[in-house]
Amino acid sequence: MYSDDDTFYAHEWEKHGTCWQDSDGNQREEDFFTKALAVAHQVDVYAALATGGVTPRSEPYTYDEIKNALNTAFGDVMVQCQSDNLNEVQVCLDLKYNPMNCPNATISCNSNIYYHPIEN
Q1: Residue bearing the bigger pLDDT, 26 or 120
Q2: Torsion of CA 58, 105, 97, 47, to 10 degrees
Q3: How do the domains of the chain map onto residue ranges?
């Protein structure tokens, strides 16, 4: 999708970072990416799923199993599937980077959702 790392970072900064400010009111690109990585580690979707009993496997999970694991950890989230495969989880955050219910939380998946192991 992106030709190199610089193109990816430029896109992310333009799309998400340009309206961001740190707690001191600064708007430095380096600080944005540092904070984004810290929040990504804090909001660990893989760990939340595992804590809820959802780990990669070849058999599908039910919609409720996925929803309950994520809602327990983060509240109402946005989940997208592609061809019945878990594809994307969006966790909404408040201004202090704490998980909050997503205002328009939806799960666009069928009743059976595959969460496959990653193949090397």
Answers
A1: 26
A2: -20
A3: 1-16+26-42, 45-120
Q: Report yes or no on whether pTM surpasses 0.90.
A: no
What pLDDT score does 120 carry?
61
pLDDT tens sequence across 56-109: 999 999 999 999 999 999 999 999 999 999 999 999 998 888 999 999 888 888
Round to whole Å and give the CA distance between 81 and 104: 17
Q: What HEC string does 84-110 produce? A: CEEEEEECEECCCCCEECCCCCCEECC
**C-alpha distances in Å from residue 27, one per residue of 11, 35, 55, 65, 78:** 16, 12, 38, 40, 28
CATH superfamily placement of domain 45-120 = Ribonuclease T2-like (3.90.730.10)
Q: Is 81 helix (H, G, I), strand (E, B) or coil?
A: strand
Per the CB < 8 A criterion, the answer to whether 88 and 80 are in contact is: yes
